[in-house]
Amino acid sequence: MLVNPLAERLKDGGLGLALMIRHARTVDIALAARTCGFDALYFDLQHTPTPEEVVAQISVAAIGAGVTPLVRVPDRDYAAALRMLDSGALGIVMPDVSSAEDARHAVSHCKFAPLGNRGAYGSWPQLGYRALPALEARQALNDATLLIVMIENQAALENVEAIAAVPGVDIVHVGSNDLATDLGVAGELTHPKVLAAIERVIAACRKDGKVPGVGGLTGGDSRRIEQVVRLGARFLTAATEWNLMLSAGQERVKALRALEQKA
């Protein structure tokens, strides 16, 4: 009845890839992401001024295109999470989760009973606005909705085993930049301290059947991503639309400037 393409990829043992959206404002980006082969669009409402109504419109388009819409909400903004889930999102990224209690609060607001206490809306775009029995609709949404909690500081790392054990958490996602800063190695995303932290998160996820994710590696040397995949990461914020545009633009200009040298 309802399919989450990212969740299906992960369930099959594949590598889930999300395109982070910072500035795109039209539904075309959903089709472009699908053409490129991304499993998900990742909207960041914590660090960008993207209006919620824009995210809602693109989320509905993404569902139709076969791409999972994920939304990162501001720190503990459970009201924003509920609005986005009621408007088409199939996953919430909750930042700054530092304890099992934080994770339980996130589950409570993002999942329906019996996992949580998400408030009922009545009709949802994810279900095509069909009138379905309440329990059937809520179960379908629970099954298809991913809750992604972010590990971004030393406190979260120390509690990661307890966080990963919380029922209703689906993905435990390392915010590499913030974690590196909190570990005292700002900007050194492949520093031994950061890699050890990622390994600890991956081990905790394996123990409790959760998916380990890593973000913050979209710029610079692609070998950083290869390294965390070898460690066992299975969900990645693989690129931003700006990463892709700038990379392709630089390559095109480089090629054309080479022609200039030959003229």
Question: Which helices and strands appear, and what pairs or packs with what?
Answer:
Blueprint: H1 5-11, E1 16-21, H2 28-36, E2 40-44, H3 52-65, E3 68-72, H4 78-86, E4 91-94, H5 100-110, H6 134-144, E5 146-151, H7 154-158, H8 160-164, E6 171-175, H9 176-182, H10 192-208, E7 211-215, H11 223-231, E8 235-240, H12 241-262
Parallel strand pairs: 1-2, 1-8, 2-3, 3-4, 4-5, 5-6, 6-7, 7-8
Tell me, what's the shape? globular
Q: What is the CATH first-level class name?
A: Alpha Beta
Which band does the percent of strand residues land in?
15-25%
* Average pLDDT over all residues: 95
Strand and helix order: HEHEHEHEHHEHHEHHEHEH
Cα-to-Cα separation, first versus last residue: 60 Å
The figure for the number of domains is: 1
What structural class is derived from the secondary structure elements? alpha/beta
Number of contiguous helices: 12
Quote the CATH topology: TIM Barrel
The number of E-state strands comes to 8
The helix content is 40-55%
Low-confidence stretches: none
State the CATH superfamily name.
Phosphoenolpyruvate-binding domains
The Rg value, from CA coordinates, equals 19 Å
Strand order of the largest sheet: 1-2-3-4-5-6-7-8
CATH architecture: Alpha-Beta Barrel
Describe the biggest sheet? 8 strands, parallel, barrel
